[in-house]
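ok so for the tutorial part 2 we go from a plain amino acid sequence to predicted structure tokens. step 1 is just haveing the sequence, like this:
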Amino acid sequence: MTVSAAHVARILGGERTLGRRVRSLDDLRRLVEAGLPVAALAKVVAHVADAGAAAGQLRYRIVPKATLHRRRSVLTLEESERLERLARVTALAEDVWEDEALAHEFLREAQPQLGGERPLDLVRTELGARQIEDLLMKLEYALPA
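step 2 — the prediction. this is what the tokens look like for a chain of 145 residues:
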């Protein structure tokens, strides 16, 4: 099961925020390489996190607070990759759970199969994202976690 680039793009804010339509992974990769718009960060955080402190913590895990205040229009490649990774894992969770609320609850809660870590904390690194994706695939196909 792969995640649709269009689903990831919708979580990133869609065509209105990204400035172009995403039809393929190649389109998504090019956007990330060019730097995602700062507005995409707000869209993803609003989509995934509860309002308030949790949203701020998530936002500043992607782009540190002091750095974010200096950003005007686009994120760096590293920041864009972190944001895309969060959107991709979120899209996969939504596909597996087939319910946004349940998927977001999964992402926000500590998971025993992830060593008691919260997926939103692990997604900071590519290896953490792989662990989450592996768990979600096991859940999707009813394999032992």
